[in-house]
Every structure is written in structure tokens, then in C-alpha cells.
Amino acid sequence: MTRSTEAAGNAGPSHSAGGGVDTPEDIAGQRAIGARLQAQIELSRQQEEALRIRNLQFDTAINNMSQGLCFFDADMRLIVCNHRYVEMYDLPPGRIGPGTPLSDIVDMRVEAGSFPAMSRDEYLQWRARVTQSNEPTDSILELRNGRTIKIRHRPMPDQGWVATHEDITEQRRSELKIEYMAHHDALTDLANRVLLNERLEQALARRVDGQDLVAVHHLDLDQFKAVNDTFGHPAGDKLLKLVADRLRGLVRPTDTIARMGGDEFVIVQAPLAAPAQATSLAQAIVELMNEPFDIDGHQAVIGTSVGIAIGPGDVSKSEALLRNADLALYRAKGCGRGTFRFFESSMDLQMQARRIMEQEMRKALPAGEFELYYQPVIRLATNDISGFEALIRWNHPDRGLIAPASFIPLAEEIGFILPLGEWVIRQACTTAALWPSHFHVAINVSAAQFRSPHLLQVIVAALTNSGLDPRRLEIEITESVLLNQKDTVLAVLHQLRALGVRIAMDDFGTGYSSLSYLQCFPFDKIKIDRSFVADIADNANSLNIVRAVAALAGGLGMTATAEGVETRDQLDRITSEGCTEMQGFLFSRPLPAQEIQQWLQFGANVPKQSDRSAA
Hints:
Blueprint: H1 3-8, H2 24-63, E1 68-72, E2 78-81, H3 83-88, H4 102-112, H5 120-132, E3 137-142, E4 148-155, E5 161-167, H6 169-183, H7 193-205, E6 213-221, H8 224-231, H9 233-248, E7 256-261, E8 264-272, H10 275-290, E9 293-295, E10 298-300, E11 304-311, H11 318-334, E12 340-342, H12 345-364, E13 370-379, E14 384-396, E15 400-402, H13 408-414, H14 417-432, E16 440-444, H15 447-450, H16 455-466, E17 473-477, H17 486-499, E18 502-508, H18 514-520, E19 525-528, H19 530-534, H20 540-555, E20 559-563, H21 568-576, E21 581-583, E22 591-592, H22 593-601
Parallel strand pairs: 11-12, 14-16, 16-17, 17-18, 18-19, 19-20, 20-21
Antiparallel strand pairs: 1-2, 1-5, 3-4, 4-5, 6-8, 6-11, 7-8, 9-10, 13-14, 13-21, 13-22, 14-15
């Protein structure tokens, strides 16, 4: 519109540029065109603003990603990348922008040291292969600076690609740490059972033409529990670490040391040319473990026993080799400890016999095959009976009467001692309740029974149900009972003492810290072990021990009972040295409850061994 037209408005007729007058229709059309132009301008402005906002959102999104992001075209030139990509590879920001060739970025990464352990050309060839494959790929690259990057490559329709780069260094370290922990003992940093089995399988699989051998050494520390209980668990842990360090110094890089738990270790010695090499290692282990360990200024001597199995001579399966080494260890410990033994086929037969005994023993209790015998305890001053010690026997249907030494250790090992011990306590209290009131009954209670939280309840229930006066019950414990959970055991002993039950220390002098145990609890009786009584007439040391223990008991107001008295000479010696009680075959063997009851009913004393046949 002309200025004259705009000025005139609707006041009068308008004129066209050619001199004609604009009609109302012309004016309306011109206004519509102007409105459309204005709308298009506004729309364009809105679109530009929306695009700006979208670009801002895109920039914000990609620059706040935890991964690096990059777009490349088909000519391997950068379209766009985010800040994380630049930071991840220590690239100079001013040199990175749209159109930058990939080769230039590679050169900058090589210069920054953020490049894989390969040459520049190798990397470009690898990148070209990934791009040309036109398939999504995921790759993990280890950089020279120690970082680990996971790259997810995704192709674009125009032959370009987009990729995310994620720094997984800490994740990989955590994964490796978790994997390491899953295969190693946390305390000693040695292999654990899982890794041991893997290494043993590998060693057996690597045997070349069946010539190389594999030796499995199973170690058990002989006196570890004594150290652990005397000096505490921190000292025990330190000792295990010292043992691990010594073992590391004995083996080759191809060997594997594993801690099996507790104080047991296994060494896989492979490859092995001859069994003599296993002998040499076992001898070195025994000798080195016999040397004192320094634990925070305290010296500890522990020793070790070793069982050895050779593959494929014994067996070729890993689990069988481990089992055979364990059987050999069992034999080594039975030979006095501090030695080593190779697996022999007879050991497997012994273990099979052991399993049969276990099965039969579990059936024997409900079948009523167990029986209590009672050995008289003689008061030396008056030569009369003060009470009886209850001793268990197994009336096996095929093998006859079995002594406790043949089955009690197995019962303790498999946990059967708990139900068996409860039966002994109930049966002994029931039987003793039928005797005259001046007789007591003594019951042996093992360390395994004291580890049960129900022992006190079992004893109280047995006393209540039988009606036996608690003062007529005597509980005998060995020093081994106090080696583990000493405070818990002492608490139970004090509760029993409060009921009136008498407490005796059995096999005195054969443990680790006899005198210290006498200080921690006021025992009523000390029983001198039969090993000192047996050679009291010929061995001055045994005589002096008996004399010292009797004097100690007298000074502490305790009864001193000598066990295993079999000759008149032994009786005279223990009497002259101040013992107050004795028990042994000289007076009587253990007798069945029925025989004890018969003699008591007729008012007679229990017969001496010379008056009856052996039971």
C-alpha cells in the first residue's frame, strides 16, 4: 500500500499506481496477503526457537551423559561429540569439532596416552573392520594409561556410525576383586577350595603322555588349638598367616597352596617326575613347621602332620585324590603326629570299616546295644568303696563287647557323642539312685558335650527324673574341655557346683596348662593319669609327678585319686605319696550294673579281681 492510501484509509476512494482507484476488494486482498506474510514470519520464528530449544536440549542431554558419545559420517569425519568423550581421552577441546577426521583424533589420543596397546595403524584397521561389518558391536579396550573402556558401536543408514564410550575401569577392578575373593582365603591370601579344585583339575589335565605325576599334600597343624586358646584368636590368625608364608617359601611357582579352613592346608605339587619329590617336600614341611613361631614376642611350637596321595598312581580324579590324601593324613595323625604318610589301599578299607561302624553305632542306641559298667573307687584310708565310675560298653550283636576306646573317638568326631552322652547321664543317675546313699557315681563328660547349650538341662533333668541327690553325682572332665570356650564351660561348671554336683579333673598332667586350670576353678578331685601310675616303681619322674600332684591336691583341699592301679607295689607307692583314692584292676575291673546291685543287696563288698572272672 502507498503512503497516500495508508493516510487516506477509508475516508474516500483510493487510486491505483496507474492512476486508478483501489477498490474495497483490492484493499481486503492486500491486507490478507500481509496477514499471511506476518503469520509465516511468526511461524518461522517459532520454528527457529523450537529448533534452538531442541538443539539446546540435545546438547544438554549428550553433555550430561556418563558415557562419551560421538557421531562420525561415512568419510570417518566427526559430526558431533559430547564433553565426556573429550574428557575421557584427554583431547584438546579447541582442536575437536565437526569435520575433524578420525585419524586426527587418533593422533591426539596417542599423544595424550589414552590409546589401546596397539599401533595407530592397527587401531584404524580395527575401526575400519568394525565400521564395514555394518553390524552392532561391543568391544572392551585396555588403554595404555590403565583405563578400561567399553565401546558400543552402532552403524547408521548413511554408512556413518554412532558410538558410546564407557569407562568401566572401577567396575572391572571390582569384578576382578570379587572374582579374586571368590577364589582365595581372606585371611592367608592362599587359594581356597574352589581354586584348589580348579588347579588340581588343570594339573591332572596337563599331564603329558601320562608321564607327569601330581601329588596332593594334606596338612593339619598339630597344636594349633592350644595356641589359639592360650593366646586368643588374633594370635591364632597371625599364626595361620605365618604358616602360609613359610609354605610359600617351600613350593614352586607351578604348585598351589590352599587353606581348607581352620588349621588345614593342601598343597598340589605338579608336575612331578617321581614320588621322591613328594617325600622331599613333605619332609621339608614337617621340619619347617617344627621350628618355633614368634607371635608378638611369644614362641609357639606347633608341628604338623601330612597325608600324601599321588595321581594317577592312586587315582586320577581330583576328588578321589583329595579324599585319599585325607585318609593318609588320618594315618599320619594316628602315628603320633609330626610326620607324613602316603596313601595306601588298606587305608580305604579302614575308612570303609569306619563308615560301617558309624552306621551301626547310630542304630545301636535305639536298639539298646549300649551298656554301662561301673568300676569301684576305693577310699585308701578305710579300704572301702566311696563310689563308682560309669564306663560305657557296646554289646555288638556280631563282634561282642566293644571297649569305648574303639568307638568313642568316632562318636565325638561325627557328633554322635551328644545323644550317646545324654543316654549315659540318664542311665547312670537312674542306676545310682538304687544304691545306698553314701555311694557316688562319676560320669565322664567330653568337650563336645560341653559345646552343647543343653548340657546343663540334660543333667538337671536326669537328676530330677531319677531322684538322685546332686551331691552324689560327680562330673569328670579332662583339660581339653577347657581349651575351647573356657568362659562358657566355667559358667556351666559353677552352675553344676551350685546344685551340689562334684567336679573332678580327669587324666591330670597330660594336657597343656594343668596348673592354670586349677586356678580358674575349685575342683573337688584330681585324678592322676594311669600313665604316671603304670611305671611309678621304675620311673623316678613318674614317682615325682604323683608325689607333686598328691601334695598339690592336699594343699588345695582336693581328693587325689590314682587311676590304673594294677599291682600291690603301685598301691603301696601311691598310698605312701599321699593319694587318698584309687581305682584299678588290683581291686576290680568295671562290672555290669546287675552284678554291682547283687553284691550291694546282699550287703557284701564288690569282689576283687582274684575272686571273679574278667568281665
